[in-house]
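#onboarding

Welcome to the new folks! Below is a worked example of what a typical request in this channel looks like: someone posts a single protein sequence, and someone else replies with the predicted structure as tokens. Don't worry about understanding the tokens yet, we'll cover that in week two.

Example request:
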Amino acid sequence: MRDLFDKIYKDKGPLGKWADQAEGYFVFPKLEGPISNRMRFQGREVITWSINDYLGLANKKEVREVDAAAAAAYGSAYPMGARMMSGHTDLHEQLQNELAEFVDKEASYLLNFGYQGMVSTIDALVGKDDIIVYDVDAHACIIDGVRLHQGKRYTYRHNDIESIDKNLMRATKMAEKTGGGILLISEGVFGMRGEQGRLKEIVALKEKYNFRLFVDDAHGFGTLGATGAGTGEEQGIQDQIDVYFATFAKSMASTGAFIAADQEIIDYLKYNLRSQMFAKSLQMQLVVGALKRLDMLRTMPELKAKLWENVNALQNGLRKRGFDLGTTQSCVTPVYLKGSIPEAMALVKDLRENHGIFCSIVVYPVIPKGLILLRLIPTASHTLEDIEETLVAFSAIRERLTNGTYKRMSAAVAAAMGE
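Example response:
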């Protein structure tokens, strides 16, 4: 028998092996100052493209005043306990009712964390005889929820309707044997690539197969649709999403999440969501803050309009300069380049230290080897000046990547890591 920790000592994992070179700079970086379009990183001002504050609410004066007043009134503890026992209030109910109305569902239920809530919702919706069908590129919280499932699950090729059809056929045959049902899970917007899930085409398959649709709309809520109600509204099929999920961590610039569905489904879930039944209720200061943010989202369409002005300026500018943005259909702006991990490190260091641009870097194993993904998140707080500076910087770093400058700069790192 070996020591449980032997594997940890020998293999830090595909990302962990880079910790000595990457931690504190490329991963676990420390941005400082008020959340905004420009913050500070290691003593320098940088244009920040890594903050999911889509509508620019995080540092709005009126939002911070409400947050501060709620903290003063309730502290950070109230209400104490889980919702079912002692953590339920009128304001929790008010927020649920307003969220349900906003996303055009009969009812909603608050979740104390998005990741945890997603995992628990999947667990509550399916039993061992049921079958899950889900996108191979689904977010980690969906993957972890599926891992809890004791029954069959099938993955389909990313956003591939033919693959979805084939896997629904497989799931249907299996469900006929087990006597169970089928849950299909898609994201409204895939947060890495920026593509919208093909929800309209998926719900059309309900004419052929008997399944329920669960949509994670973390990046679509507040950014898509005429009113900001999300990807379902954008595609005109919100009423055909059986269970709708969104987080407060993006457009609402806060903590928490919610699920929305028919009243009977929500009634079932609130009595069977283990992560909510056995965990502390969402703090009152967050509930009050979410009510204010939701009100602004509903009554200030200029926030979303400004967001999309910036999105279009950034994405159109990058495309005109020949950058590959993949097939994004949302605010998420991925820029694909070819290069190794050491080259990616040199490139990002150049962006941050010489151009004052801070964006997220994504490499293998999240994307295939040989690719670098720079992920930009435009917000309503950005300015056209920010965008122009970024376009100039991206043209410069692409030139250095193409002419081998970063390859030469990274040779020592690559040699040290045995690449």
